[in-house]
Write a structure and sequence with these properties.
Helix 3 runs antiparallel to helix 4 and helix 4 runs antiparallel to helix 5. The protein has 12 helices and 2 strands. The relative contact order is 0.11. It has a two-stranded parallel sheet. The longest helix has 29 residues. Helices cover 63% and strands 3% of the residues.
Amino acid sequence: EGRKVFWYEYKPTRAASHIHEFLEGFSGYLQTDGYQAYETAVREHPDITHVGCFAHARRKFYEASKGMKNPASPMEGIKWIKKLYDVEDRMRLKYPDTNDFLLHRRNETEPILSGFKSWLDKKALHTAPQSLMGKVVCYTLGQWNKLIAYLDHEDLTPDNNISENAIRPFVVGRKNWLFSGSPTGAETSSKVYTLVETAKHCNVNLHDYLRIVFEKAPNAKTDEDWNNLLPWNFLQADG
């Protein structure tokens, strides 16, 4: 508790059942894109609040702008989302206290959200649902309650880009080696990536950290031995 962990876990498919199993016993916030399997899995976990991602909505507006002769409408959607990020950055700098931040972020953000929602509602009435613009409007409105849920907690931001960025090294590597060789290999890769990416977040020297892990792990017998090898306990382990 109180630590940020980048956790990778291999599953053979993207089925909702795997997400449901992974979330068993968890309560709190889960921030994701609009992939339907997340919604399906979370529906069976009443103690989880599902939070959406404005970065994914923004990406859909951007993609629509590239496919339209007149990109004015999707670019206007991007401008609405930018206003939300501007408020987020400004409030986090101005109000380091949690309670003040939550209050002022909500006060500054809600008028923008209200304007954005009204704009989306009008676009939905005058845009063909199967058009590029229609699809992104339908996606954003369909995600709306999840998209605005980030206002409820100080640790939540408008997007889950931290997770997206943590996925990138694995995706780039996968393109290089194509296959893990076996499910066991994929599971092992997930464990190594969990350690490496978490250690990077803790700002420890990766070479030194992994050297200590490989030297001391074979002799680890107790929970305390293993805990000492966690990235945030690296200095103690090095001692």
